[in-house]
Amino acid sequence: MIKKNSLLFLAGLVWSIAGYNVLNIGYQAYKENVSIILVALSVTIFLLFKNKIFGNMVEKHTKRITEYRNDKQWFWKFFDIKSFAIMAFMMSFGIIVRVNNLAPESFIAFFYTGLGSALLFSGLKFISNYLRINFVRYAH
């Protein structure tokens, strides 16, 4: 078991690693597919996922974690069941698409770059929340 506020750091670490890996796949696909249109699509995907999906999840999980009554929690409690299911689906779908060549490299380039950037940004937001909560707690 770990301190509940450490779950925020763990979530940030997991999301940041996942984001970096997805971003790297997109970056590698960009090597042969650079264009203004794809960059604009990457930015659009980033903003969509950051603002409409991951941003809400970061706030929801931060609130849930900080409201745990017990200070010690199991390490897997950084996510709820629904979020683990979403993560498993996204990873499985992404692997199936890439392994079976179901999408062109240009799609992988813009979509994975935007998605990976949003995941990485959200992971850093979890870590920022962890630092903010712990800094405020110890500053008083």
As a percent range, the share of strand residues is under 5%
Shape: elongated
Give the strand tally: 2
Number of helices: 4
Transmembrane segments: 7-27, 33-53, 74-97, 109-127
Keywords: Membrane, Transmembrane, Transmembrane helix
In words, what does this structure look like?
This protein has 140 residues and is mostly helical. The chain has one domain (2-139). It has helices spanning 6-30, 36-66, 81-99, 105-139; strands at 2-3, 72-73. The chain is elongated and about 50 Å long. The two termini are 26 Å apart.
Keywords:
140 residues; mainly alpha; two-stranded antiparallel ribbon; 4 helices; 2 strands; elongated; transmembrane; membrane; transmembrane helix
Which helices and strands appear, and what pairs or packs with what?
Layout: E1 2-3, H1 6-30, H2 36-66, E2 72-73, H3 81-99, H4 105-139
Antiparallel strand pairs: 1-2
Describe, in short, the structure shown:
The protein is mainly alpha-helical and 140 residues long. The protein has helices at 6-30, 36-66, 81-99, 105-139, and strands at 2-3, 72-73. Keywords: Membrane, Transmembrane, Transmembrane helix.
